[in-house]
Structure formats: C-alpha cells, structure tokens
Amino acid sequence: MQDVQSSFDPRNVALKKVGVKNVRYPITVLDKINKVQHTTGLIDLFANLPHHFKGTHMSRFIEVFHQHHRSLSMKQFLSMLDEVRTVLDAEEAYGNVRFPYYIAKTAPASGQESYLEYQCGFSGHVSPLRRRFYVAVEVPVMTLCPCSREISERGAHNQRGHVRVKVLMGQDFFWLEDLVILIESCASSGLYTLLKREDEKFVTEYSYDHPVFVEDLVRDVTVKLEDWGIFPWFEVQAENMESIHNHEAYAAVERGVDQ
Amino acid sequence: MQDVQSSFDPRNVALKKVGVKNVRYPITVLDKINKVQHTTGLIDLFANLPHHFKGTHMSRFIEVFHQHHRSLSMKQFLSMLDEVRTVLDAEEAYGNVRFPYYIAKTAPASGQESYLEYQCGFSGHVSPLRRRFYVAVEVPVMTLCPCSREISERGAHNQRGHVRVKVLMGQDFFWLEDLVILIESCASSGLYTLLKREDEKFVTEYSYDHPVFVEDLVRDVTVKLEDWGIFPWFEVQAENMESIHNHEAYAAVERGVDQ
Amino acid sequence: MQDVQSSFDPRNVALKKVGVKNVRYPITVLDKINKVQHTTGLIDLFANLPHHFKGTHMSRFIEVFHQHHRSLSMKQFLSMLDEVRTVLDAEEAYGNVRFPYYIAKTAPASGQESYLEYQCGFSGHVSPLRRRFYVAVEVPVMTLCPCSREISERGAHNQRGHVRVKVLMGQDFFWLEDLVILIESCASSGLYTLLKREDEKFVTEYSYDHPVFVEDLVRDVTVKLEDWGIFPWFEVQAENMESIHNHEAYAAVERGVDQ
Amino acid sequence: MQDVQSSFDPRNVALKKVGVKNVRYPITVLDKINKVQHTTGLIDLFANLPHHFKGTHMSRFIEVFHQHHRSLSMKQFLSMLDEVRTVLDAEEAYGNVRFPYYIAKTAPASGQESYLEYQCGFSGHVSPLRRRFYVAVEVPVMTLCPCSREISERGAHNQRGHVRVKVLMGQDFFWLEDLVILIESCASSGLYTLLKREDEKFVTEYSYDHPVFVEDLVRDVTVKLEDWGIFPWFEVQAENMESIHNHEAYAAVERGVDQ
Q1: pLDDT tens, position by position, A67-87
Q2: Does B100 touch chain A (CB under 8 A)?
Q3: Which of B249, C79, D66, D210 has the most C-beta neighbours closer than 10 Å?
Q4: How far is the C-alpha of D103 from the C-alpha of D113, rounded, in Å?
Q5: Of B254, D186, B90, which Cα lies nearest the Cα of A13?
Q6: DSSP-derived 3-state class of residue C204
Q7: With DSSP H G I counted as helix, E B as strand and the rest as coil, what are the percentages for chain C, rounded to 5?
Q8: Nearest-CA neighbor of C91 among C141, C132, C46, C158?
Q9: How far, CA to CA in Å, does B39 sit from each of B68, B70, B174, D27, D68?
Q10: Is 80 exceeded by the pLDDT of residue D93?
Q11: pLDDT tens, A32-57?
C-alpha cells in the first residue's frame, strides 16, 4: 500500500507542528495522598515536519500515548515526547495534557469533607537543544473587592474567580496539592463543595477580612512562588467573574527566564 | 439527477423532527428604542417526516430562512414556519433562533451609559392543531445571600447569577426590554458594563439591602409575571454562580397551561 | 444560628425544582470488562420545595452525593434520590450525572487496540407516584451521504456525526457497551482513536458501501431498539457535522410511553 | 470617596497586563461589499501596571471602548489603544476583539446565494517601542484525505476542517474577504450554507479531485500568503474534525519576523 505521507514535498515549507489534537483518553496521574488518581485527559501531541516530507504518520502519536496513559507522571512525560521524536523521526516533539484533578477538602468550621475539582495540565517540548516541562493549574477562589468594601457603608461585592498558574519545572519535584494550597492562601477564601451553615458564616467573615483585587491576587501568588524558589519561570493569571458586571476583571504577571 | 430523499422507505418509522441545526446567520430583530437591531443568530429548523419518505430536503430550510433573516419579528416567525411546512410538504414545523440582544443601560449614580448583552431566543411550533410562539431571555444579575447576611457579623456572599425566563406568547405583543426590566427588578441588583466608583458604592449597598436566594428570585419573577397576566404559560429558572462554591445553586418554577 | 431557609414564605409559589447544578466530582461506574471504571462526573441534584418554605438546604444534596460517588450504578441511583427526598423532606427528587466513559476498541484490519470516549449520562426522578431511571449515551460515528454517492461520479461526502440515545430503563439490566455496539452498527462506520493504513482503507471502503442519512441512522437504531424490546420509552437523535456545510443535519425519533 | 486603586503598593511586582476580559458589546466593522457590517463582539482590553500602584481603574477601559464600538476599523484600533494608554497613564496597552463576520456566497452550480459565518479577530499592542496590529480569521472548509483516496478502491474520507490564519499588518490595507478567498482556494472545497443537488454533486466531485492533508493546507496557504507579500509575519493553523476519528488532525506554520 502506498505511503503517501512519506513522498517528497516540493513546496519548501517546513511545518512547526503537526499531529493530533483533542484526543480524549483515560489517564492516571500521581496523587499526594492516594498515590495515584484516575481521571480523564484531553491530549495534544505534535512533532515538527521537515519541508521535504509530504505528511506525518498520525497513528504513531496515538500508539506512543497509549503506552503511557496509565503512568503520566511529570518525570515520564518528557520520555514519552522522546519516543514521539523517535517513532516520527522528528527533531522536535510537543505534548499537552489537560485533566480535572480532585482534592479532598475539609470545611473550615464543621470539618466536613468533600472533593473540589481543579483543572490541571502538563505540557512539554523536547528538541536537540531544549527540554521543557510545564505544569499548569486553575484554582477557583473567592475574591472580595477592597474598593467596594472601603467605599460602602455595608457589604462588599465578591465573586468566584479563577487563578491560573503555569510553572516551568526545574530540578525539584513538587505536588499539585502544594501549589493549590499556595494559591488558595492568597485569595479572599478558598472554595468548598460542601459548606454547612457555620462554615458559610466563617467564609463570609473571613473573606470580608481579606479583600483582594485581581491585582493583589497575582502579586501575592508571585511573591510566594518566588519565596518557594524552585521554578525558573512562571506565569500567574487571575480572572474574576465580577458579581456587578457581566464580564471578567483580569490581571497577569510573568517572571523568570524560559529560553 | 436522482432524488434519493423522495424514494420510499420501508422501515415504518416516522420521524418527529428532521432538519438543520446550528446554522449561523445574520439576523435583524425589533428594538424598542432603535426600531431594529442587527445581531447574530444561531438557528435550528425542523419538520416532521412521514414514515414513507426516505429523507427530507435540507436545503429548503435554508432557502426559507434566507428570505426572512432580515425581519425576524415575533409575528413573522410563525409565518416562516408555515412556509417550512409548505415547501417540505410536512404537517409540523419547528424553529428556534438564539441571539445576543443589547440594551443601553444607565449607571445608577453617575448616569453613564453602556450596553449590556442579553441572550435571547424565539422558538415556535406549528401543526394543523397547534400554533405556539415562545420568547426566552437570559438576564445576568447580582444576588446576595440572605442566609449569609443573617448569620455573619460583617459582609454577605454575593455573585453573578442568571435568570432564564421562557414565555408562551398569548394575544398581546410585548417588548424584550420590558421583560428584562421586570426580571432585573427581582434581583439583588441588575448588572452594568460600566460603573464608576459612586455606582459601585450604590450597587454594593443596594444589593446588601435586597438579599435574595435563587428561590426568592424565581418566586418574585413568577408573581410579577402573573400580575402582568399576558402569558398563558411560562417557566422561570435562576442559577447562581455561587462565590463560595464551584457549582451553581438552582431553582425553577413552571406556571400555566401549554397544551 | 438562624435557619433562614426554614422560615415561612408568604408568596404561595411552590418550586418545581431547587438544588445544586454543575457539581464536578470523581465517580465510579460499572464496566462490563473491568468491573468498575473511575471517571469524572458533572452532577445536578434537585428536589421540589413546597410553597410555605423560604428555601432549601443546599449542602444536604452534596452530603448525600458524597456518600454515593464511588458506586454510581443504575440500581443505586434511585436509592440515592430516595435519600435526597428524606433528608430534604421533599416529595420529589431529580438527579442527573453526565460522564465520559471509555471503551477499548479493536481496529478492524490491524487489530490494534485503543480507547474511545463516549459521553454518557444517568438521570432519574422519584416521587410518591413515579420512579424513573434513564440512561443516555452519545456515540460519535462516521456517516456517508447516500445522495452525494448516488449523484456523483466519484467520491461521496462523509463526516463525523453523533448519535444520542436516551432510554427509560424497564425491568432488565443492560450494559452501556451493548447499547454502544447497537448504535455503531447502524452508522456508515464506527470511529477509532487508532487506525493504521490498512484500517483506514477498510473504513473508507466500508463506509462507502454503507451510506446513511441522519434519517436512516435514527430509523435503524429505532428498529434495533424495538427488537431488543427492553425499553418502555426511548429517544434517538442523530446529528451530522456536515463536511459540505458549516451546520449540522439533524433527525429525531421518540418511541414508547413515559407517563 | 477613597481611591484605593491609586494607593501605593509595596510588593514590588509590576503587572504585565491588567484590565477587562470577555466584554460583550455590539460592534460595527468595515465590509467590502456593504461598507459596514453590524455584528457582536467579545472584547479584552489590558494595560500594564507599574509596581507602585495598587490597582487599575477598570471602568476607564469600558469608557474608551464605548466611544469606538461603532467604528472598529483596522486603522482606528491602535488609536483606541493609544487612548487606553492615556486614560490609564500606562506605557503599554493590549486589545483583542473577536466577532462573527458574514460573507454572501454563491453556490458553485446553482448560483444560489447564502451567508457563511467566519470567526474573525482584531488584536493590537502599543508601547513606546512597538505598534502591532493583527488580523485573525477562521475559515471552515472541506478536506478530503489524499492517503485514504490513494489506498482505497472507492471513496475517500473527508470532513469539515478549520483553517486559522493570523497576520501582522504591514503598510497595506486589505479586506477580510480577500484573505478568506485565498484560504478557501487551498482546501478540497469551501463550505456553503445553501447547496442544491447539482451543487452537492459539484462539491463532492471537486473535493475528490482536490485532496489535501492538513499539512498541504497550511503549506498552500503559506505559499499564497508569501506571494501576496504584504504581511511581515503570519501564522497558519489547520485542524480537521476527522470523519474516521473522534479527534482532530492538526498542522501549523509560522513565517516572518514579529519583534
């Protein structure tokens, strides 16, 4: 059967990326408390394609991923990308996996337990000159507006917001759980799936006592990430689903070097 | 050229609906202030199909809609569905058009003007026995929790919420704008795209003074719709993007008869 | 602490549904091959609310679900809704859980294995008069147009489509896997995450030999479901992401009695 | 009333971007045929924030945009960003507007007219050192697989795909319509909302005669954009909603300099 993809291409246009996108697959990742967590992944895998080849072999990306879907640790992610390079005879490989990750949380007053979902992501890039692995996490939080509190005689507008942090991994391993705790500690309050009445009172008063703008949130996370000191580069974004508007308030910081 | 669709089908399965879905088209609707508003529609059009026909003629739905896309008033919608019945030789026709609609709003203290978007929808059904036209509107609002306010020494959690109302049209014409105002008057506060500092103070204090559960919101809208008295049937749903949770609080009421 | 929700409400408006929506939680469901499958759920839980109560107790829905999230079988779903009725002192309870479900598939020529994701859902309703449990599955398929094939001298347009089936459960247990196989057998071809070149040839030729309209698809699924004979009521929808249009072709059948 | 935002911030963290996101607003853009087109925009506006200010003034972004929403031409976009810099006393401003844009298309055989929607975007960045304006367009197309055609005895899998092109504007004005035509000419076929039977035959046979991989598509668009020669930098992405898989095939090229 003819291998159309391997035939010569005369257009002299090299492709930066070619591959598969939005592959939905069961995955298993590490869990600080339970050792592993089974979850559902959304996967992109790409390689570069030299100008002289007409096409790539899409099925090989899936074959490699299928071998690794039950052990997607931070460590093994770049090995998987190395395999992609090998089987596709490519110089560069890129991977991106997004997944919901669940952490058990304890309500602040009643102590009742429930799970909260965090959207997480692993991504990587390997080439002869460069090996990069990034971890991303989106943390839903509560933010209470310092301006609204200051200028109003009673109350203060507050809302659900999302903090998105992406870090470049350096030499040190870390747990998603610890990154989440760092981020939640910078908000007016963390969120909980289950809150009894005494917890609702606690969260309401605590958030009133800890007002933050999106600007404060990204700065406080930045200061804490720099104190932690293990990430050569990171990006922090905060987005408030403003309770007084139908749009979002947004702030972003980028720190470090990623060359 | 053979007309495959018109050939005989032996399976003896009549289709309830067949047609086109998620057609994206420019549309023009009526506007209380500016006479007309140009916006962007997402359209579904269906007819029934008797068991003896193999298929429908999909292009005819588009031909009919194309004739009407510049004058999609409440009145003309059912005429359009009548045309669908005629050109497709069908007993029943169904239509659904969703569109963003913009209303200029004045900030409560500064008086500054800005537009707010409302997701709206027209839908209809015509058959030999039945003619129904429904209007739907989704209104983003602010809600402040009565329980949180009552049990807390300071502050109260509040959030953006959405009220979705669907009404069966009776004999009387009405404006989308008036339905929106009715709904906003039942929330802790309406939303605004543009608020200056004095407006933010106003909205914060006003919402603190007007706490509502989702339960209150759907009930208050229900009472006002019944007082208006022009809709034979309606449905009211409210959904809060809780600032203390990562999920929504929800309530729904259905009233009247739609047979 | 005051229980605001339990106070008397004078508006005389009973709520059809009140509760929590879009709760994201890890869940475990039954799996025909592997006994259980761990996946990620999106959950709605509602109860009715008599007119004299001001509000419901939202946290109790979560407490009940938390007890059941690791054993969400078809059988236990209605028991969970019974608990919702009890803890909320409500007459009616409603539940809805949507989740991705993975089935290992074997490529038709090479025999290589990969997983394919199916969006599934359980939903139920219990009241003093009524107990209903529904299973929904969305199956991505390939459809090749009979008209295009018939009128063209070469080729035929084909596309990815989705078949959505919702069944009312009767006396007999069944596996999601068997419902999926039934549906895929009615399409021009099933889909696969991993296809080698010999598989691509097989699927291309097989689909060319088995053209179906959306109309054919819903009818063939209907005939096979009626032959199976275990569902008192069902609904079949098919939707093609037409390769020649930017909109979808749609067909729907409803059969049986659900009173 | 206190201006909390203008107070001193001691954390020494400058913000890269702060502002408003997902603002929904009616907009008017230029149209090659009809002079102007009224459509619906989704808008982000950001500025940088020096480390010594606690917060930005979010309402000013909306005030500036409101002045410009009825004349969002490519030329005026950067002037709007200049105003953002002025009113916020910022060095840098960023803007992003996404909108559906409709173009009338003529069916290839019957000559019948209908509208097709294209997702478009304007984005810009102004700073003391840099002025950049980008135009993005997403074109839905039909692609027929060369490999499937080559190896199969009959038929070939084809599907709807999307080509996304983003260009950096240079000295020369251009029309969205011309960029769309260039892109559609590289696909197996363009799409149409309305096709009669003779058109369907035409599109089926034409696409069979013009098979393209995603790799071919991005290369052909690249060659034509380079021939056009007016863009200092551009990016081309193609994504196929594969009819034989439940995931997408993807390819990307980047060309030129954007420093």
Answers
A1: 999 999 878 999 999 999 999
A2: no
A3: B249
A4: 10
A5: D186
A6: helix
A7: 30, 40, 30
A8: C46
A9: 14, 10, 19, 10, 18
A10: yes
A11: 999 999 999 999 999 999 899 999 99
One DSSP character per residue, B81-145 reads HHHHHHHHT-S-EEEEEEEEEEEEEE-TTT--EEEEEEEEEEEEEEETTEEEEEEEEEEEEEEE-
Q: C148 and D201: CB-CB below 8 Å?
A: yes
pLDDT at D5: 86
Nearest Cα to Cα of residue B42 among B124, B121, B101: B121
Count of CB atoms situated within 10 Å of the CB of D71: 14
Distance CA B4, CA B6 (A): 6
Instruction: Enter the tokens of residue B223.
Output: 């009472």
Q: What is the DSSP string of C68-92?
A: HTT---HHHHHHHHHHHHHHHT-S-
Chain A residue with CA closest to B154: the answer is A205
Check CB contact of A171 with chain D, cutoff 8 Å: no
Inter-chain touch D66–B194, beta carbons under 8 Å: yes
User: Rounded to whole angstroms, how far apart are CA atoms B225 and B232?
Assistant: 10
Residues with Cβ within 8 Å of B258's Cβ and at least 6 positions away in sequence, in order, are B132, B168, B232, B233
| Residue B60 to residue D112: CA distance in whole angstroms | 12
Residue type at B232? Answer: P
| B32 C-beta neighbours (distance < 10 Å), count | 12
What tokens appear for D55 in the block?
A: 């917060």
Q: Would an 8 Å CB–CB cutoff place A196 in contact with chain C?
A: yes
Q: Where are the alpha helices (DSSP H) in C91-175?
A: 146-151
When the pLDDT of each residue in chain C is averaged and rounded to a whole number, the result is: 96
Distance CA C199, CA C250 (A): 28
User: Residue D95: which of D130, D66, D133 has the closest Cα?
Assistant: D133
Q: Estimate the crossing angle of helix D58-68 against helix D74-88, to 10 degrees.
A: 150
* CB proximity C151 to D under 8 Å: yes
Cα(D16)–Cα(D48) distance, rounded to whole angstroms? 5
D12 closest CA partner among A219, A217, A187, A253? A219
Beta bridge partners, C106, equal C113
Q: Are A225 and A172 in contact (CB under 8 A)?
A: no
> Nearest residue on chain B to D4, judged by CA atoms?
B197
What is the C-alpha to C-alpha distance for residues A219 and A221, in angstroms, rounded to an integer? 5
The ipTM (two decimal places) reads 0.95
Question: Whole-angstrom Cα distance, residue D81 to residue D86?
Answer: 9
Instruction: State the Cα–Cα distance between residues C61 and C48, nearest whole angstrom.
Output: 13
Task: Please state, in angstroms and as integers, the Cα–Cα distance from residue D40 to each residue in A167, C121, D167, following that order.
Answer: 35, 34, 22
Q: Give the C-alpha separation, B15 to B53, whole Å.
A: 10
Closest by alpha carbon to C96, among C132, C128, C48, C129?
A: C132
